[in-house]
Amino acid sequence: MIQVILITGNISYFHKMRLFLNILLQAITVMMLFSSASLSLAQEIEKGTERPSIYQLDQKAVMVSTDYIWSITASYEKLVPVRDNLGAMLRIGAGPTFESGLDPVIMGQFSVLVGREVHFAEIGAAFYQTFRFYPSFISNFGYRYSGRRGLLVKIQMSSKAYLDPSWIREWGGTETWPSVQLGYRHVLKTK
User: Which fold has domain 2-187?
Assistant: First the structure.
């Protein structure tokens, strides 16, 4: 959404084309993820096998993870199941970022998870705010592994939109790259 707004701004033709290609790449990847998830669900139903639903997963957790390689955050996440294989995830946290010289960063993320057990397709949007720069907005989609003993691995394509004028001059306002996030997720038990 932010990227569509940026296309109409005063940026060069090169940056507009780069932005358009980033959005196109995201749309193609999202379609591939959803078609893959739908196909595996259809095969599962056809076989008649019953697998655990998203309702059986732990719904509250604290976690420590790398975020887009440059930050390490401690955060709280809450899963809200919607259907057997669909859930919404809300995450808030804080930590240092190495991208701008160990500045503290606060972050928030909303994601949609599609999958069962420990394997999910994850599509989401996040914001990162340091105290010296304008916030950055991130859209991401990819694979999420949430292991039963706490291991968290995300392999994603991420697109970052910068609002800080100095970052826009340096990186052109947006950039898209693959990212790997590693972390540990500790489940919070509720009574």
Answer: Porin (2.40.160)
